[in-house]
Amino acid sequence: MRIATLQIAPKLGDIEGNIKRADELLSKGIGVPDGSGVEAARVRVEDAKLDLLVLPELALTAIKPYLEPAGKGRSATWARQTAKRLGCKVCVGYPEVEVETNRNGDHEEKYYNSLLVLDEQGNVLLNYRKTFLYYTDETWAEEGSAELGFHQLTFPNAKESSGSLKARAEGEAAILPPPPQSQDKPDKEIATSFGICMDINPYRFEAPYTAYEFAHRVLESKSQLVILSMAWLTLLSREELDALAEKPEIDTFNYWIQRFMPLITKQMNHSRNADDADADVGSTDADKRIIIVFANRAGEEDGSPSPARYAGTSTIVAVSQRQRTTDSNSIVSSPSSDDVQSSPFDVKILCWDMLGATEEGLCFADTAADPKMAFQLIRARQMQLAAGLGFSKCPYRTLIYRDDPILKLSGNMTRLVGIGYRDCDEESSGTWKDY
């Protein structure tokens, strides 16, 4: 699959200016990496043959007076035009108004923080409404229904290979053979879960941290793809964000991954991966993946008592899980007692791209290609043990998490708190790709 997120720093209330900025960022195209992961060339977004483009929460508009009926407002118009132009599905966050008629014949308005999903022809596939509201959402929006956050997305099979995309970026498209046709192959049906920002947190921050409501729904629905439209805040100061510039905020990334801990500790139940629908991964030793798209915004909004600053760091990853081998240094994950599989398994976090905290632009993944980075998770208290196993030469970047009793929650649950990541000192002859 070819997936892109558009990380943008929209200006509050400036709809036309934000749309112009979105088009400008799309016009800059997509960076195509070389074998080492360094950008070697750029290709026009029209030539990238995207399957999916995802924008942030409330991407182009503010709230009042910019509320839109589902599929009919300015956000929908832009998304429809973009979907047709790029030939891909487009997901855009927007503020929705629904007008209902009560028993007395009076019109009543309900407001939602919504995500509109359109197909390649600009038809509405889904209108998902945010279920877990942030405290600022509660001042204006109604809760949506979590059950409506699942959809079977259909994708055509005819896409160019990664090699073709790189050649097109280098101006060699004229000598390339035409892309393979898909008449002999049925379209791919991809089980997809949708969420908006706060949906991945505990309900109202009152549910136990380890309830993992959204992640459990992903597993229970056998989703192969997760799409998250976000306006995720950061606690960093303006100076700290400026210092990061095009570097991601790793604490935010670490936290996002931890909100999907059930995908790491419990057995995945789907039988096909989204990026290889022809391969059966139902066997115990197969590599199962769930792709997660984190489409966040960047920038800063004035507010009282302090400005709202956004974490950026949009990324496209896959949680990759397979039966554990004896020579692995990864976390050992034990399935719950109601799982058929009783063996632990290895988990890697594969990452194709990640934008900086203040960066605007496209985050792109071709999930059929090798990822730029692979992460493994390790408990903080295992650091010395890991070092004794040659951790510094490990070919994986490592997300470190803490399982000490930092914060006790109901039921004596322990909160896992991200404390950063560590780069390996050296790569072991490129074998990190042998995940």
TrEMBL record:
It comes from the Eukaryota. One of its GO terms (biological process) is protein catabolic process. SUPFAM superfamilies: Carbon-nitrogen hydrolase. Residues 1-347 form the CN hydrolase domain. Coiled coil: none annotated. GO terms for molecular function: protein-N-terminal asparagine amidohydrolase activity; protein-N-terminal glutamine amidohydrolase activity. InterPro entries: C-N_Hydrolase, C-N_Hydrolase_sf, Nta1. Pfam families: CN_hydrolase. This is Protein N-terminal asparagine amidohydrolase, putative (AFU_orthologue AFUA_5G08010). It comes from Emericella nidulans (strain FGSC A4 / ATCC 38163 / CBS 112.46 / NRRL 194 / M139) (Aspergillus nidulans).
